[in-house]
Design brief:
Helices cover 3% and strands 39% of the residues. The chain has 116 residues and is mainly beta. Keywords: Disulfide bond, Glycoprotein, Signal. This is DMBT1 protein. It comes from Thryothorus ludovicianus (Carolina wren). It holds the Pfam family Zona_pellucida.
Length: 116
């Protein structure tokens, strides 16, 4: 566990355990939950499809392509235990593949219209 106060900046870093300079890491989705087993009900989305959904989210540059750094303000779910669990999905790409998911960045998915 990592202990922080509510509204305190929480800094995170994820890295590949590889020294291969041709690999790149990308944060695609990051969701918070009051329980460790359910990240769909009563969850809070911080990043979805590479797009910031939490207004306190900020991404930081890294000297290495295979490291992702970001922060957001710590919070607590109302009427819940004080614990907050994170589940993040990261994508590994070839660093110079400009058609890869890593180079697409934020991808807003359009909603389909319901037909009558």
């Amino acid at each position: 566990p990592y202990y922080v106060r509510v509204n305190q900046n929480l800094y995170l870093e994820a890295s590949l355990r590889s020294s291969d300079p041709s690999l790149q890491l990308f944060l695609d989705t990051c969701v918070a939950s009051p329980t460790r087993h359910n990240f769909t009900a009563r969850s809070h989305t911080i990043v979805k499809n590479g797009c910031a959904k939490d207004p306190t989210y900020a991404e930081y540059s890294s000297p290495r392509r295979h490291t992702v750094r970001f922060r957001f303000n710590a919070f607590q779910f109302i009427r819940s235990n004080p614990e907050v669990y994170l589940q993040c999905e990261l994508v590994v790409c070839k660093a110079f593949d400009y058609s890869s998911r890593c180079h697409q960045g934020c991808v807003e998915r359009s909603r389909r219209e319901a037909s009558s």
